[in-house]
Amino acid sequence: MNLVQLSYRDYLSVEEINAIEHEVAILGQRQAAGIEAMKLVQKNRGWISDDCLYAVADLLQMPASQLEGIATFYNLIYRQPVGRYVIHLCDSISCHLTGFAQVSEAIKEYLGIDYGETTSDGMFTLLTNACLGSCDKAPAMMIGEDHFEHLTPQSATDILRQLCAENDKDELNLRE
């Protein structure tokens, strides 16, 4: 039973509820949709707040503690606010053997943050990831759904510069 009584109808949008119910219909069991439900809500809101977690748990008719266990295990569910771009830098042994340390230092220096931090402009959050499945193309990072492989300090910072430039362009288009 949830410690916090929060009706999903008061917190989740109709679109979120419908998308989650669609996942439940595909999977056949309400609780099996936990990860997908959190991913859907996170896509709309950027992260899973406590209220989001309790509302999803209510909708899926499962204990919030069980959903929290799933959220903390699955490293692509964010339980605190993150930047517009979340950088997952792979720190597997393959990446360590092929230049992870130099790429990591270049990214941290360029952004002015360390792991688990977000830039002051809210643009980037830097996280490590145990494996991105790119061992033969290491070092690697993932930003959003995009994978970048065979990284060097220069190529990694060029990718971040490009994202900054695209963001600046988007900002100009919004103002016009």
Automatic annotation (TrEMBL):
InterPro entries membership? NuoE-like, NuoE_dom, NuoE_N, Thioredoxin-like_sf
The UniProt gene name for this protein comes to nuoE
Q: Does the keyword Oxidoreductase apply?
A: yes
Q: Which residues make up the binding site for [2Fe-2S] cluster?
A: C90, C95, C131, C135
Q: Which family does this protein fall into? A: Belongs to the complex I 24 kDa subunit family.
- A GO molecular-function descriptor: 2 iron, 2 sulfur cluster binding
List the protein's name.
Answer: NADH-quinone oxidoreductase subunit E
- Name the Gene3D superfamilies on file: Glutaredoxin, NADH-quinone oxidoreductase subunit E
